[in-house]
Design goal:
With about 400 residues, the chain is α/β, with parallel strands linked by helices. Helices cover about 55% and strands about 10% of the residues. The protein has 13 helices and nine strands. It has a seven-stranded mixed β-sheet with strand order 3-2-1-4-7-5-8, sandwiched between helices. A two-stranded parallel ribbon has the order 6-9. α1 runs parallel beside α2 and α10 runs antiparallel to α11. The radius of gyration is 33 Å and the shape is elongated. About 30% of the residues are buried. The C terminus is likely disordered.
Length: about 400
């Protein structure tokens, strides 16, 4: 784990931060190092960082000539050799007891990014009313404008898997305070998991954050990211393993795309069969009789009417009633559509009308089929449960049978 501390003119706060953090990490269960990134300081911050690097074994320091927290994090995370990269503010506003829960979700592989939040239930904060209002308003804008699921984008307490965050860094354009928000927006847009940890947070009034200016820059950044997403330029190729079952005998469900494709194929064929039968019978029969024959034959061929061996006896009657009701509804609506077409309109208009009514009703057939599958699964489970309960009972009955 590589914890980055970006600093700008922090000669006063830096020594206490690094020594406190290093002492806390002495008992940390993961290998760690601290990287101080001085991005454009004009005071003695770099000399202090270099001295701390020589004093403490696991503390490293580097200097950038450009300013911006985003630029510091980008440079450190891109060059880090650690499996997990993190960062925190130099004022240690976030309580360090939240560090292990933050890193654990990323180290386990469950989440790609973890963030501290001051706005989730369980978090405790002490800060000025102005920062509270600005923070809540900004994050409400993110939730309602972008539909994000995280609650606090700007808390300076985050961790990520290095192999996942590096492709995102190539898309992040901001080098200042909006860096965090842009990174999280891109992560959620590309389907990555963002884990939140409620934190205890106390505001340090000796801060380099200019609230109003930062808020204006953040609004500009939001507009830029929204435009990038609309143009399809926010997609990132991130290597993520596909979920696989742990149980060796698991029966995996088919993908939704394959299910929809098979459903669409069956229903297109059903509509074609329906139209063909309708045209064949219409030469000699009335519209109502023709429609009855076409609907009945199509239902039988497409398997909408359950066969005797497809359902258990326990629920067979209920399934037959539902199938009859669905058949009656389809027949009534398609017959009404056929009779509504004037005879002078021609046979093509009549077939088009009944197809327009029959096609959307295929969706109800698909839903009913899904329910029927669940019912069969429920029936099998019910039979097995009854068998497990009754067999021991029978053995007990034989064992304790009275002699008379």
């Amino acid at each position: 784990m590589d914890i980055v501390i970006p600093v700008l003119n922090e000669e006063r706060a830096l020594p206490g931060c690094v020594r406190t953090l290093a002492a806390y990490l002495g008992g940390f269960p993961l290998p760690w190092r601290i990287t101080i990134v001085d991005n454009g300081s004009t005071d003695a911050t770099w000399r202090v960082a270099a001295a701390l690097s020589g004093e403490l074994e696991r503390v490293h320091a580097r200097r950038l000539e450009i300013r911006g927290r985003g630029a510091a994090l980008r440079a450190a995370w891109q060059d880090s050799t650690a499996d997990i990269v993190a960062y925190m503010d130099v004022d240690l506003s976030t309580d360090l007891d939240a560090l292990f829960p933050l890193v654990a979700s990323v180290a386990s592989g469950h989440s790609e990014i973890a963030i501290g939040t001051r706005l989730a239930p369980g978090a405790r904060t002490r800060r000025s009313l102005r920062r509270e209002v600005v923070s809540r308003g900004y994050n409400a804008l993110l939730r309602h404008g972008f539909g994000v699921r995280f609650s606090d984008a700007q808390c300076g307490f985050k961790a990520a898997r290095t192999d996942v965050v590096r492709p995102l860094l190539g898309k992040v354009e901001d080098d200042s305070w909006f860096f965090d928000t842009e990174l999280l927006l891109l992560a959620e847009h590309n389907g990555l998991r963002v884990h939140e940890v409620p934190v205890d947070w106390i505001e340090d009034t000796d801060s380099r954050v200019r609230v109003v200016r930062t808020a204006v820059d953040d609004l500009k950044g939001l507009a830029r990211v929204a435009w990038s997403i609309c143009r399809g330029r926010a997609a990132v190729e991130v290597a993520r393993p596909e979920p696989a079952p742990r149980h060796p005998d698991a029966v995996v469900a088919r993908p939704r795309e394959a299910t929809f494709l098979s459903f669409a194929t069956v229903n297109v064929a059903s509509c074609a069969l329906y139209a063909l039968v309708y045209l064949s019978l219409r030469e000699t029969w009335s519209p109502a009789a023709t429609n009855l024959g076409a609907v009945a034959l199509t239902f039988l061929v497409s398997g909408a009417v359950p066969r005797r061996w497809t359902v258990a006896r326990l629920r067979r009657a209920a399934v037959r009633v539902r199938s009859a009701a669905r058949f009656s509804m389809v027949y009534a609506l398609t017959t009404a559509a056929a009779l509504a077409v004037p005879s002078a309109a021609g046979r093509a208009a009549e077939v088009g009308a009944v197809l327009a009514a029959y096609g959307p009703l295929a969706l109800s057939r698909w839903i009913a089929g899904s329910k029927r599958t669940r019912a069969r699964s429920w029936t099998r489970r019910r039979r097995l449960a009854l068998r497990r309960r009754t067999l021991p009972h029978r053995r007990m009955t034989v064992r304790h049978r009275p002699p008379f």
